[in-house]
Amino acid sequence: MAAGILPPFDPADPLGIDDLLDDTDRALRATVRAWARDRVLPHIAEWHERGELPDVRGLTKELGSLGALGMTLDGHGCAGASAVQYGLVCLELEAVDSAVRSLVSVQGSLAMYAIHRFGSAEQREGWLPSMAAGEAIGCFALTEPDHGSDPAGMRTRAERDGGDWVLTGRKTWITNGSVASVAVVWARTEDGIRGFVVPADTPGFSASDIRHKGSLRASVTSELVLDGVRLPAAAALPEGRGLRAPLGCLSHARYGIVWGALGAARTCLETALDYARTREQFGRPIGGFQLTQAKLADMAVELHKGLLLASHLGRRLDAGRLRPEQVSFGKLNNVREALAICRTARTILGANGISYAYPVMRHMANLESVLTYEGTSEMHQLILGKALTGLDAFG
After folding, report:
1. Looking only at Cα atoms, what is the longest distance across the chain?
2. Could you say which architecture CATH assigns to the domain 245-389?
3. 374 in catalytic set
4. Would you say the pTM of this structure is higher than 0.90?
């Protein structure tokens, strides 16, 4: 570009962040955006209102064909994509609904990642190809009814019986639980916490959906019961020992949330902008009033600051330099700001903001769950507080 000639200002990309992407990144983003727009967007408001995700297995296979499942993993049918590319996929999926991004996140960043990182060669080859293709759905069972933010207190037990393991306990708030072919279950043993690969058709394993949710209504959320589930010794994840193992999986999943939450925020900002340009009060569009413009400007600033943060963290992850505290930084900031953007968009839409004719209230409600899962804001504040001060305020 000749000196002194500037590109036009783009309201959708005011900072020119797209300059940080290459052609492959943009093509992948466009593919996933088109799929989400054509396959999910026309139906998601109804699915959310009904509290169901019809044909979840069909959707999962389609996501597998896009390479969106376990996409940063190498081998076994996984795409081996960059962390930035995975983040872009999470953003585009959550721009339609958090439930769809949650399905992908739990499948790839939790269940598949745990098997890939901590599993045996037999476990990886036995499960990852079918999971990458979306033919098998996975879930990640850590949270219990009485132990959410404190997984070290889990009560689910795995006891040896001859050459077998026998698992007994309950897990709750498990995404994909009732549709899963396999569950990665974390349990307490006499030697500490360990992970197990549990086929869903194992006797004693059952899952039931959690109903009457006010958030993530289009997501399959379940309670798991393990009633004397007998597994061979080979079901244990060889490297899945200690609490560091499941927490490492959670850190991997949190990274996707850093991007995904901004997708919900982007949709709400776009909705508010369109509404402000067309909704007239006092004889002119409300976008012409100073207070409305101030809101829109603040929303855009926080959204695109969040995108810069997400991009920076993604490049650190690709370079092998991303620390868990930095993931907490991203999750804390981006989800909190995304929720604030959605709430502000709701005020611009006025009474229409609570109608499912618009996506704002749905995204706002969904982000209340995203704010909580994979570590509450308070937990990430304490993680950062400990890193900043060197003092442990947990407990």
Report:
1. 80
2. Up-down Bundle (1.20)
3. yes
4. yes
